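User: Can you write out an input/output pair for a complex, sequences first and structure second?

Assistant: Here is one pair. Inputs:
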Amino acid sequence: MGRFKQQILTEALEIVKLYPEAKSATIPLCHLAQSVDGYLTKDAIDHIAELTGTTPAEVYGTASFYDMIQLHPVGRYVIGVCTNIACMLQGGYELLEEAEGTFGAAVGETSPDGLFTVEEVECLATCDRAPCLHVNYRYFGPLNAEGVAKLKEDLIGGQLESKVPVHGVLSRVKRQTPELIPMDEVDNLRASEDASKAERTSAQGGSNA
Amino acid sequence: MPSHMGKIVLGRRSLENSHELDTYLNSGGYEGLRKALSMNPEDVVAQVIESNILGRGGAGFEAGRKWSMLKKATRRYLVINGDESEPATFKDHFLIENDPNQLVEGTIIAAYAIGASRAFIFLRGEFALGLERVQEAINSAYKIGALGRNIFGSTFSLDVVLHPGAGAYICGEETALLESLEGKRGFPRIKPPYFPAVIGLYGEPTIVNNVETVSNLPWIVTNGGGAFRALGEGRSTGTRIFALSGQVKNPGLYELEMVKTTFRDLIFSEELGGGLRDGRTLKAVIPGGVSAPWIAPEQIDLALGQDEVAKAGSMLGSGSIIVMDDSTCMVRAAWRISRFFMRESCGQCTPCREGSSWIEKVMARIEAGAGREEDLDLLMDLCDNIVPGVSWPPAQTTICVLGPSIPSSVAVGIRMFRDEFLTHIKEGGCPFD
Ligand SMILES: Cc1cc2nc3c(=O)[nH]c(=O)nc-3n(C[C@H](O)[C@H](O)[C@H](O)COP(=O)(O)O)c2cc1C
Ligand code: SF4
Ligand code: FES
């Protein structure tokens, strides 16, 4: 695709509206683009720049800083194996090796069938389930060799479809709320709240911070 | 359950579907916010000051005092730090997934207390399920009138926005987090100003608080700051979640009254860590995140309190505790930590960027058996270049404290386990392989 189309474009415009400054929407929009293409395409970068009032260079500059934003196509499933300290102590490197073998891709590479990309990642904040890994940011652990084999089978067999969406889809829950209160309306509210607070504190001799 | 097992932030842990709104409402949910709204904002601040809750993000700054430092301005922001990427820290992840309504309620209470114009909950991008759960909780809050215009019929109005990160440890540092939230690279800001409370998001005064910190607020407001302060000891009040990991029988989260438990109890007591596995002995403990100096087996009678651990020359930091038994190669452990810093340095400061990669290189060659005896001096020299005198707490030579955190595990590793380093060098390989 490239540029956002209809429904996704509507969603993108909603996201931009959540922030007092449009540039803040850059990363959420990168995630949105990845949910369609699995990675951040050149066209998507251009479109995000338009939507956020920035330049493609700025979008690229931001995107390239972050591990989760892929600038090249990746597999349908990105497998991130944690080898950080708590996982390492419980066999994180052995798990990484197992994952490379089972999914048929060395670290940083994608299996020939285009299904799996394997990455070595830092702590996933799931250390009580060490050694662990994520598949498209859904967590599994503790895992041994059989566990990895079963995981691959289940992914291919579709048993994990509801738990693990395709790469790039982060959250399937959309924001469903009324329109945000305009900032100038909030400014007025806060100004009058501050004024009544000042009155209260001066009535108390200003002792209350 | 031992009496020191607290039940504040993890109070809903045993409930089924603890993340759902119904469960939340049936277990005291949103009572804290209702009570807060019946008080003046400054009285809510006073309760939080009274509780003396220390920030749970790592730096341990009093939340009430931070709020009082917020610079006067009509527009000000609240940002919740849910970046949790500190190795072996996994408490916020649990709170986010399993009690997201409590997090949202705590956020609204904090926003009311400081009069935030808008609140942002910044979650680490990797928390996919967490992003879904917190968005559900936000959606529910609007539905029941806890967000939007005139919250619960009061004059207070607020919007909360959930913001996903995209994978960078450094975004946990509060000024990097704000840069990231502004749509930029996660580069920590040059200080001063030291506090976002003066210049924060979009240049406006901003309070940044950790997920666990604000998750305590509904309880504090409902029960009063005094009730919180009655728990714990000295400056370390209330309970705290300790994340236990590594080579221990029962890794997991333990909410404990501050100071009332020792490292030994946490690791060895049957109801808690359950001890080490199959006849292993304890070699070292890493408290408070990988920046913290290690604790020796002789030191584990130390109490789990902020000042207690600081006095012993380390830090309680993020509340994570990594247990290493005698099957662990300490060179490998220190190497892996240095590798983490090398990968996560944002690259702005030379001592941090260059220092981390040099240290990692030398550590890797020692572990691989290609080290030389002079390497130990070289490592200490590299550490000294980042933190003059390799002091603890470290001297600040860089924009943020990631840089000065790099030396501690390597320096402490060499100090505590020099023989093990030398064996690697003399035998030309890792004795644990
Ligand atoms: C390198 C670095 C990483 C940090 N990571 C986190 C983090 O993941 N979560 C967090 O709450 N605080 C983190 N902090 C601390 C924050 O800068 C900040 O002190 C904290 O969010 C304030 O909240 P609190 O006062 O409620 O603890 C980090 C600090 C540094 C220097
Ligand atoms: S100390 Fe390291 S992580 Fe912190 S700003 Fe400097 S280079 Fe970046
Ligand atoms: S060290 Fe692997 S999840 Fe924390």
